[in-house]
Design brief:
3 domains, 21 helices, Beta-Lactamase, six-stranded antiparallel sheet, Rossmann fold, alpha/beta, single chain
């Protein structure tokens, strides 16, 4: 076989894999000229494919060698230096281009000097190698007596951001401790995970560079500072990053804790069809979005996915009725979309000020990121009463608590009852890995059967109900023991629609907590646990995941009367005269 034929044969294997994985079309693959040499096979494929991770997978398949896609905890990684293109992982010598003989010879020479014997071959993408170097190798890099070079610090933080984005992290935390090391942590699926320890000098250079160079904010080492910047992950994807620093005590001195928040890292979920909503809840949100005016309030703790759900509804509303004028007020603006105007509030432009100015521009649909004070809430309800559809958020534990929260913000009860369309509460629960989740019967867990077995969705089959739980050992799909059989998150939702009956109860001063319990007991309201048990039966989550995020199941299922005594409920407790009086109040508004 001639050298040209050998090159053509290897190239055919690489493109066959890329076609199979949907990275290039068969027509493009067939029309590629033969590379000049084997060394150029990998760069030529990357130029066509625009995905070096996929090309690394193709090389591993063609050469039948190990592909380093994700490192596991407890397995050592050995690097030569920040500038060399190889590493040793689990007795495998991994390089970005195994066809490059000079690169392989240099790597093998280094490996022999370091005492490595009988190494197996492996491939790692250039992108992932850069991320690993940034995360694992920076502690050995210092400039001559003057700390770490800013250029190197920026290179390191760029690779850390790419690595975090690849892992679908929502935040990056740089946590100074009691030593001269700093913990690098990623928040993934709501859980903060230790990634690596960084040298303090590198950390200080990163903080200074991120604030001063990236965020264009004059750096101060003794005060809290905020900043923002954009980061281009690829030709088609840009992240908005929010930066926050905070002085913290470190032994007898002080250092800066740095948190970088990644916004817009997973915009695919901003779609009602991809949120995993129950058919009933999805149709309710679609119905509410079609109303010409009113208030839709989403509630839940920080990080519960409120903004994602609001955007999913907003985008669905725009797709069904694009002739409306859409405008958002946010702090910060997390996503940007065509056909929607976005305003970011700041110390110089509050929610109330921006909302007051926006109402002069005749919008149809307004998203107010958060109602933080009574001025903003009053303006939002004024907009809802004057022909605008308002979407906003509150921080409460459930839908019914939002009624009391608004009252505390001095919104009149009559205004709440007659201008609120619905309250929506949401939590995010970690999902079970689809590959390694463990099946069992409810009767195998007698303690939980005693608590949950009476739920209508579980009582039909009794103890024979088949459920799933996480495999603590995990698998390759979910990341092994590090993630413990969990991968991704799923929203658990409850919706309190303000129907005429609920309006009457609110106007008559029924305690929201009593109203909630009575509605759950008479079946007119499905709470977070009802939606969670739906996901439980679908095999999406387990009991532990629900219990970690939701209040105890029985808390809102204890039978009480309107005086709070432990007796059977007596309904909302409204006389015919009281109902008539409440209806007259609404008619007079």
């Amino acid at each position: 076989m001639t050298p040209k034929e050998s090159i053509a044969q290897e190239q055919k294997k690489l493109y066959a894999y890329l076609v199979q994985k949907g990275k290039v079309s068969s027509q493009i693959a067939e029309n590629q000229p033969i590379s000049d040499s084997k060394d150029s096979l990998v760069p030529d494929c990357i130029r066509v494919c625009k995905d070096d991770l996929a090309v690394a997978g193709a090389v591993a398949h063609a050469l039948d060698i190990f592909h380093l896609e994700m490192v596991e905890d407890g397995i050592d990684i050995k690097f030569s230096s920040m500038t060399d293109n190889w590493l040793v992982y689990d007795n495998k010598l991994c390089v970005p281009n195994p066809y490059d003989r000079q690169l392989l010879n240099d790597a093998l020479d280094w490996a022999r000097r370091e005492g490595f014997d009988n190494l197996k071959r492996g491939v790692v993408s250039q992108t992932y190698l850069g991320q690993l170097l940034a995360v694992h190798c920076v502690s050995d890099v210092e400039s001559d007596g003057a700390g770490v070079d800013d250029k190197l610090a920026l290179q390191v933080v760029d690779e850390i951001i790419r690595h975090a984005a690849q892992k679908d992290a929502s935040d990056i935390h740089f946590m100074p401790g009691r030593t001269d090391k700093v913990d690098l942590q990623y928040r993934i699926d709501g859980v903060l995970r230790n990634e690596r320890k960084l040298d303090l000098k590198m950390h200080d250079a990163i903080v200074r560079s991120v604030v001063d160079t990236r965020s264009n904010v004059q750096f101060h080492s003794n005060k809290q500072q905020d900043g923002k910047f954009e980061f281009k992950l690829s030709q088609n994807k840009t992240l908005n990053l929010r930066v926050s620093t905070m002085p913290v005590v470190q032994q007898s001195s002080a250092s800066l804790k740095l948190v970088i928040r990644l916004l817009g890292n997973n915009m695919a979920l901003a779609d009602l069809d991809k949120l995993g909503l129950s058919p009933v809840n999805k149709q309710l949100l679609i119905k509410f979005g079609g109303y010409p005016n009113g208030m839709i309030i989403l509630t839940g703790p920080t990080g519960s996915g409120k903004t994602t759900t609001l955007y999913a509804q907003l985008l669905h509303m725009r797709s069904t009725n694009p002739n409306r004028n859409f405008h958002t007020l946010e702090d910060p603006v997390e996503q940007q979309h065509e056909g929607i105007s976005h305003t970011e509030v700041s110390v110089n432009l509050t929610f109330a000020q921006a909302l007051r100015g926006m109402l002069r521009q005749d919008p149809d649909v307004i998203l107010v990121g958060e109602m933080r004070d009574n001025e903003t809430a009053n303006l939002a309800y004024t907009a809802a009463m004057t022909g605008h559809l308002i979407l906003s958020t509150l921080h409460t534990n459930n839908t019914h608590e939002s009624i009391g929260r608004l009252m505390e913000m001095e919104i009149p009860t009559a205004i709440i009852a007659t201008n609120t369309t619905a309250f929506v509460a949401q939590r995010l629960c970690r999902s079970l890995c689809k590959v390694c989740k463990v099946e069992y019967r409810l009767k195998d867990d007698p303690e939980r059967q005693a608590i949950y077995g009476g739920h209508p969705l579980l009582s039909e089959l009794g103890g024979e109900t088949r459920l799933f739980k996480a495999n603590p050992d995990g698998c390759n799909e979910c990341g092994g023991k590090l993630n413990g059989g969990e991968k991704g998150r799923r929203g658990v939702v409850e919706i309190l629609e303000i129907t005429p009956d609920v309006q009457v109860a609110i106007l008559n001063g029924v305690n929201p907590a009593i109203l909630r319990r009575e509605q759950i007991q008479n079946g007119t309201f499905k709470d977070l646990w009802d939606d969670g048990i739906r996901l439980l039966l679908e095999g999406v989550v387990g009991f532990k995941q629900l219990e970690d995020e939701l209040k105890p199941y029985m808390q809102d299922r204890l039978k009480v009367d309107t005086r709070g005594s432990s007796t059977p409920t007596v309904g909302i407790g409204l006389s015919p005269q009281a109902i008539t009086s409440s209806v007259e109040q609404m008619n007079n508004l």
